[in-house]
Design a protein that fits this description.
This protein is α+β, with helices and mostly antiparallel strands and about 220 residues long. About 15% of the residues lie in helices and about 35% in strands. The two termini are about 25 Å apart.
Length: about 220
């Protein structure tokens, strides 16, 4: 775990060196709050991220699904720098490796793939939570990547990728967007859904299991 902390700190320091801030710019770092959840312990051993996040630049991460790689550009300069910082930390600690995406929806209201839950839908987080980072102006078009949660202020490891659109309230922190690999998501949708959700027949488990074989920084 000490090595993983070291990797996270090195990443932050490296970004500080290559991206000096203009004197008139907003603060380079923002404070984050990651609160332990003893009643909902970590599904896999991880340490909480450092309590600060960069607020400039972007970082690309790749989820290597059994359907193919999907690369996401996370926006540190957006409204949710702590959420970005958290996802990078979990990826560095291999939290998402060899995990399954338990939910797929394709209705007129919601078209998303939901991942990050280790055990089943909305079960199996990192053992901590952090607040929402929303402005109220968020939209969720195709390719958006955002945090999933079980209510206000319950963010952890769960996230979703919008494959069509999501007509939902602006209550989910937006991390960034897919820059390559949406065709892999489309193939998951084309394979169909096993209805398991009371919201309707177009919401449930992917008909063919969707698995994250590995997640990494870069392409």
């Amino acid at each position: 775990m000490k090595l993983r902390w070291g990797l996270a700190v090195v990443g932050v320091l490296g970004a500080l060196l290559v991206a000096p801030a203009p004197a008139s710019a907003a603060p380079l770092l923002v404070q984050c709050s990651f609160t332990p959840t003893p009643s909902n312990p970590a599904a896999r051993p991880v340490v909480r991220p450092a309590p600060f996040a960069l607020t400039r630049g972007a970082v690309d991460v790749t989820f290597r699904f059994n359907y193919g790689p999907v690369t996401v550009r996370l926006d540190r300069a957006g409204a949710a720098p702590c959420a970005v910082h958290n996802m990078v930390s979990l990826i560095l600690q291999r939290f998402y490796d060899r995990s399954q995406c338990w939910r797929l929806s394709n209705s007129s209201r919601l078209g998303v793939l939901q991942c990050g839950d280790i055990y089943e839908v909305e079960k199996g987080g990192p053992g901590y939570k952090f607040p929402d980072e929303v402005t109220g102006a968020e939209t969720y078009p195709r390719g958006t990547v955002a945090m999933g949660n079980q209510g206000p202020g319950t963010n952890g490891s769960e996230f979703f990728i919008v494959h069509s659109f999501a007509n939902i309230p602006a209550q989910y922190s937006v991390l960034g967007h897919v820059i390559r690999g949406m065709s892999a998501i489309d193939r998951m949708v084309a394979d169909g859904i096993i209805p398991t959700d009371p919201n309707g027949p177009l919401d449930g488990a992917p008909a063919h299991p969707v698995k994250i074989q590995r997640a990494s920084i870069g392409w």
